[in-house]
Amino acid sequence: MKNPIPRNRSPVDTANPTARNAIPSTSRRTRGRDIAAPSSATVVKVSRPGVSSFVVARFDNRPNSLMTATPRPDGAMIPDGDLGDQKVLGALLGISEMVAGLTDLEEVLGAIVRITPQLVGVDRCAILLYDPQKHEFRTAQMYGPDPERNAIFERLVMREDDVRSLAHRILEQKLPALVREGTLPRQLADSLGMRTALIVPLTCREKVLGIMTLDHTRGLRLFTSKQINVVMGVAQQVAIAIDNFGLKADAARAEERLRVTAEILADGLITLSQSYRIVAIDAMAEKLLLWKTGEVAGKSLADAFAVTDRDGVRLPEAPAAADLVLHPPGRRDPPLMYFRRKDGARILCAVHTAYVRDNLERVLDVVCALRRVSSVDGGGADALPDPASRRIVNAGAVG
After folding, report:
1. What is d(CA 183, CA 10) in angstroms, rounded to the nearest whole number?
2. Tens digits of per-residue pLDDT, 249-275?
3. Which domain covers residue 171, as residue numbers?
4. Are 58 and 107 in contact (CB under 8 A)?
5. Angle at 31 between CA 28 and CA 36, to 5 degrees
6. Which range has highest mean pLDDT (62-66, 369-373, 390-394)?
7. What is the tens place of the pLDDT at every residue in 317-333?
């Protein structure tokens, strides 16, 4: 009976276990400090119909794994023919799954700069992210065999004009360029020892988000069209990952901006669906009304808080009728409505209502901003008698 192949080793490693040895892991710089890459790995085994299995590890520093393969004496990371079309496709699928599954951009980029050089037979790779405010590219992650040059590479900053001067097609046409030693800037040729570099733009939604550089430190290394296509496929996944994390950061900033604005302008926000059912209430509204989002989500606004006007008339359940009350046409002053808190007390609030629309002007959500009104401003006491009792009293004598 044959011994099974260990999960963290590819079939090539098993066939020749001494062909590759482990090397000390390089550190990755985070916020000005060096952090050693984790010694454990999450293994992704890609298996598709018609595609041979390919093992992709994440930050694995154990021997005989894809990320710890050392250059052979002849200078080639992976000898010609070791990675066929199916295995390259398997690696690309593994990278795609890794990009979709990881939640930390540094981890994604750190894994990719370790995998990509081995797919095209070089030993150094770097990803530089673009800063639109400063118009420059800064190293985010890099991987190479020389620790001293790695430290220099990690501090590398390239101006946008410098990248454009290397090859017009990189930023203008958004195409890869093979830059030779004579046209490389001194900071690349002298400090980093680059002789020939493949520079690929990281493009997503017609925007250049960064560049990826690949070169070989042990002699001149040219790239075939097939290898350039492989790198372009990886670069596309990198760009998607950078864009996704950027969108998440933008959404988080927008949410925080909304929270701060709401604290300044209102005492609480209630988000409603088109049918005037509660989607969420923010922390200030929870404190004001003593209800949690989970306790009232899905209920109608009128039912959840027993909303009435100052005359005791209940807010209609029908969305169209409720909209006329909360957002009356031709009226600029917000309506004053009573909300019943969880402890049974009722508070008077001015209700400012606004619609959240999409690009086609379709209503997605309705936002109600509550501003508590004092008894003086509201013209009455906060503790209004129960509407049912008032109706019985005002009905007059029976008989």
Report:
1. 39
2. 999 999 898 888 888 889 999 999 999
3. 11-249
4. yes
5. 25
6. 369-373
7. 999 999 899 888 877 88
**Count of CA atoms in the C-beta half-sphere (13 A) of 180:** 2
Residue 240 sits in the same domain as residue 274:
no
Question: Which residues have C-beta within 8 Å of that of residue 75, sequence separation ≥ 6?
Answer: 123, 216, 218, 219
Q: Is 336's pLDDT higher than 80?
A: yes
Enumerate the H helices of the chain as residue ranges.
11-15, 85-101, 105-120, 147-154, 160-166, 168-171, 186-189, 225-265, 283-289, 293-296, 301-305, 319-326, 375-378, 387-394
Whether residue 211 sits in one domain with residue 333:
no
Q: What is the CATH number of the domain that holds 228?
A: 3.30.450.40
Assess if residue 258 is contained within a domain: no
Residue 343, in any domain of the structure: yes
From 215, 249, 283, give the residue that closes a domain.
Answer: 249
Kindly state whether residue 4 falls inside one of the protein's structural domains: no
Is 360 a domain residue?
A: yes
Q: What are 154's two structure tokens?
A: 């990690």
- Residue 253 has a CB neighbour count (10 Å cut-off) of 10
The DSSP call for residue 202 is E
Quick check: 163 and 172 in contact, CB under 8 A?
Answer: no
Residues 199 and 131 in one domain: yes
Whether residues 210 and 92 share a domain: the answer is yes
Separate counts of helices (H) and strands (E) for the chain = 14, 16
Give the CATH number, domain containing residue 313. Answer: 3.30.450.20
Give whole-number Cα distances, 364 to 201, 340, 360, in Å: 36, 26, 11
pTM: predicted TM-score of the whole model, two decimal places: 0.63
Spatial neighbors of 236 by CB under 8 A, at least 6 apart, are 203, 204
Structural domain total, the chain: 2
Q: What is the average pLDDT across 337-351?
A: 95
Distance between CA atoms of residues 145 and 70, nearest Å: 8
CA atoms within 13 A on the CB side of 362: 4
CA–CA distance, 181 with 275 (Å, rounded to integer):
65
Q: Which of 291, 280, 293, 355 is nearest to 323 (CA)?
A: 355
Residues 85 and 233 in one domain: yes
